[in-house]
Write a structure and sequence with these properties.
Alpha-Beta Plaits; 3 helices
């Protein structure tokens, strides 16, 4: 199992609109693609100084499934134009980790 982690930062004024965009359009669009091997997605949010940080964590069954989502350069970020308008800055590359232990599984 693979965890894909990405960070984005926005202003407090854009935080709620960005979260709304994630909930109503971006996450719905990802799920509607029905990518084989896509498991789920989480969104984390916290205030940091004068910004609001967002973290998305996606789980996939394999790197091949990640490539189905992001393409051959699977570490490249996938940030739609509407999201780019609301973000002050964001990771250009996502990080990928093997999930070794999880509440839902003893070993990956």
């Amino acid at each position: 199992m693979i965890s894909r982690i990405w960070h984005g930062w926005t202003s407090p004024a854009n935080a709620d609109p960005y979260e709304d965009l994630l909930r109503k359009e971006i996450f719905v669009g990802i799920k509607s693609r029905r990518i084989p091997g896509f498991v789920d997605i989480q969104m984390l949010r916290r205030p940091v100084g004068t910004e609001v940080e967002f973290v998305t964590i996606m789980r996939f069954k394999s790197i091949e499934a990640v490539k189905q989502f992001a393409g051959d350069d699977y570490e490249a970020c996938v940030v739609p134009p509407k999201a780019r308008e609301l973000l002050a800055r964001f990771d250009l590359r996502s990080q990928h980790y093997d999930i070794r232990i999880s509440e839902n599984q003893a070993e990956a």
